User: Which sequence fits this backbone?
């Protein structure tokens, strides 16, 4: 019996110390996180319409640093659009330094640090954005009041609520 345990111990030690001969084989990079991969159930649970309004960018628009997915606000009263963008090449520091970013404020979305901001391209009462760093890159979430609609709530409150609801579906924090 003791021999069996000794033999097992030797096998474990040898296996643990063994090496691998040959050249390293490069591993394929994981596919980047796609904003449109957020489950429909999660989108519905946060109160958005479940149909993706737009994946990517419109015809003739090229934004190579950003992937994008856009949903319409509540089906019963679609007064805004909710968008999620992802970039693997832009950092949160670079975003903060963008001259179009205004009123940047550090906030927490549960245990994650984020930056809430407006842009100079829209009125603060009509659009609010939030950015957070993830292992999948920088996420930029926004709520934008639909053309011709009147805001029913502060867009910043709405984007924060959606971020909190959808956080489990985002890549982990770096």
Assistant:
């Amino acid at each position: 019996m003791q021999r069996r345990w000794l033999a097992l111990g030797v096998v474990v030690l040898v296996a643990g110390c063994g090496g691998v001969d040959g050249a390293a084989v490069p591993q394929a990079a994981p596919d980047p996180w796609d904003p449109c991969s957020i489950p429909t159930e999660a989108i519905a649970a946060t109160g958005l319409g479940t149909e993706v309004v737009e994946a990517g960018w419109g015809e003739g628009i090229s934004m190579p640093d950003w992937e994008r997915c856009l949903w319409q606000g509540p089906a019963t009263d679609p007064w805004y659009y909710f968008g999620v963008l992802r970039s693997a090449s832009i950092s949160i520091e670079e975003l903060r330094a963008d001259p179009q970013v205004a009123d940047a404020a550090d906030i927490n979305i549960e245990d994650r640090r984020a930056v809430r901001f407006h842009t100079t391209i829209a009125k603060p009462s009509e659009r609010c954005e939030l950015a957070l760093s993830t292992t999948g890159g920088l996420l930029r979430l926004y709520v934008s009041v639909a053309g011709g609609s009147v805001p029913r709530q502060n867009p910043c409150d709405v984007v924060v609520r959606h971020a909190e609801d959808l956080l489990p579906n985002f890549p982990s924090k770096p």
Observations:
- The radius of gyration is 23 Å.
- Confidence is low (pLDDT under 50) at residues 1-20.
- The first helix runs from residue 2 to 17.
- The helical segments are 2-17, 40-45, 92-97, 155-166.
